[in-house]
Amino acid sequence: ESQIKLIVGGAPYQFDEGLYQKTGADAWARDGVEAVAVIKRLFEEVTQCLPV
């Protein structure tokens, strides 16, 4: 799995919550505030996969 993550957002993704997967993104957010939480979650997932 790639360590580079793609996050999308905006109106189209609010009407179809599966749209981000159809576009190849790793996650989506409703707004900038939610995007910060999504980025933190993705960062934790990626850093857990890194070798120690």
Distance between the termini: 17 Å
General form:
flat
> What is the strand content?
5-15%
H/E element sequence: EHHEH
Overall strand count: 2
The structural domain count equals 1
Overall mean confidence score, pLDDT: 91
Strand order of the largest sheet: 1-2
- Sheet with the most strands, sense and barrel status: 2 strands, parallel
Protein name: B12-binding domain-containing protein
InterPro entries: Cobalamin-bd_sf (IPR036724)
GO molecular function, one term: cobalamin binding
Organism: marine sediment metagenome
Topology, please?
Layout: E1 7-9, H1 11-15, H2 19-22, E2 27-29, H3 32-48
Parallel strand pairs: 1-2
GO molecular function, one term: cobalamin binding
Protein name: B12-binding domain-containing protein
InterPro entries: Cobalamin-bd_sf (IPR036724)
